[in-house]
Design a protein that fits this description.
heterodimer, A: mainly alpha, B: alpha/beta, TIM Barrel, 8-stranded parallel beta sheet, globular, binds zinc ion
Amino acid sequence: MADPPDHSCPLPSDGVINRYFMEHRAKLLDIAAFLDRLDRSEAPESTEADFRVEAMRRAIQLLVDEKGERAKRILELFSDPTTDPIPAAPMKGATGAYKEPTP
Amino acid sequence: MRYIDPHIHMVSRVTDDYQRMAQAGCVAVTEPAFWAGFDRSSPQGFYDYYVQLTEVEPKRAAQFGIKHHCWICINPKEAEDVGFAREVIALIPQFLEKPGVLGVGEIGLNKNSKNELEILEAQIDLAAKHNQLVLVHTPHLEDKLKGTMLIMDAIANDGRIAPDRVLIDHVEEHTVGHVLSRGYWAGMTLYPETKMTPQRAADVIECYGQERLWINSAGDWGCSDPLAVPKCQQEMKLRGHTPETIERISYDNPLTFLSQSGRFSIE
Ligand SMILES: [Zn+2]
């Protein structure tokens, strides 16, 4: 039997930073550029209301709340919170964020 | 370093991929039955696919010293037409007798619809009646958390299949804890874009331990990487994980789960 997980990464924190900082700096800039691109695109009022972008804006808040388990909580934020099967599958794919049914 | 890729759709990959996988340390693969990227027009289309999985792919893999095994089912993306799906399910028992067939899979849900659930329950019944292992596909993106819970409830409500004979695949940070705490095995799928990266998979191993957890590429006809498992081994090594831990996740754990079928062999 393996020891129970101690939740620690074997790399020391400076090792984590040295190994991953550049990669995630670039990903952060991708998000910034995406939001800038949205600002520059036509019909900003409709994109402002887009459920996916709205979910992303809420998810970004979780990055800086210092409460830990950020990946898990962001995945939960994007998830369908309902529990009953839907009547019929409308499509095969998924959109990446939960959309409230229009009343 | 040797490894098993326990979830990969080799029918969609070229023979060169088998060669590259063997060179990277792959000794065995298991291939669940899944959606081809289009809906098959007849149950006969599934029959032919099952022949490909049970007869053609093992020979192609053997050229490179890789043992090929498979799982048979109708996948959830083609389960919305219940009458059609039941015709396909009627074809499955004859294939469960074939050598190299490890169980029923990858069954599960896609959009969490009532019809998908009905066909999932029918295939849980099939697996229970034939005493088969089960490999579960969980939905992607916003549908995953709800679908994972519905699937585990359906298996528990049936009650005949022990959780340790079920692998729930495509877990992410928000589902892995639920799956492991209910006694199931959990699979992490390493996908270049929409699923886990090797980095996140290594994080999950650090946070949730090495019990009942494996990694796979789920390489298929979409953007995917048949060498994802050795890339994750490399990530773990660079982080300072021991060779024993890496081997446990990428070789020992799949061997332990799959050997319950009585049909898994790497010889
Ligand atoms: Zn698959």
